[in-house]
Amino acid sequence: MGRQRQPRSSERERGTSLQPSTSAAERADKACRSCGRRMEWRAAWARNWDDVAYCSDACRARKVRPVDRALEETIRRLLGERAATATICPSEAARAVAAAQGDASDDAWRALMEPARRAARRLVAAGEVEITQGGRVVDPSTAKGPIRVRRAR
Questions:
Q1: Which of 27, 84, 94, 129 lies in disulfide reach of 41, CB 3.0 to 4.6 Å?
Q2: Side-chain half-sphere exposure of 65, counting CA atoms within 13 A
């Protein structure tokens, strides 16, 4: 007959915690400054959650470039030129910015498609627009496939 192991008590039972306590308000989701995707609070970021601005090293390296600001402004302009209920495709903004840069080739605007989607997500995070699929508003962080952009209602 061997000795029976006693179950270890959890940290809660001992009353200690390795992580600093944070309230739910301090843990609110935020949007990446570069891509606009939602970032959820992580325990690894507990000490500097207020300073976290980017969701990944790639976004931190990319930041927001002048072409990204041009795409945001083009989305705003295109929506402003249309009826209040109208939508646009991000490709329209990509084509307009590529043409403004003097490059009207197919590859130029196609290269701007993902930056146009990022610009739309940043505008969603700012509360200016909504992203839809099939006429329904979707979460821009998880939307896959073709999207449309409309003014926020």
A1: 27
A2: 8
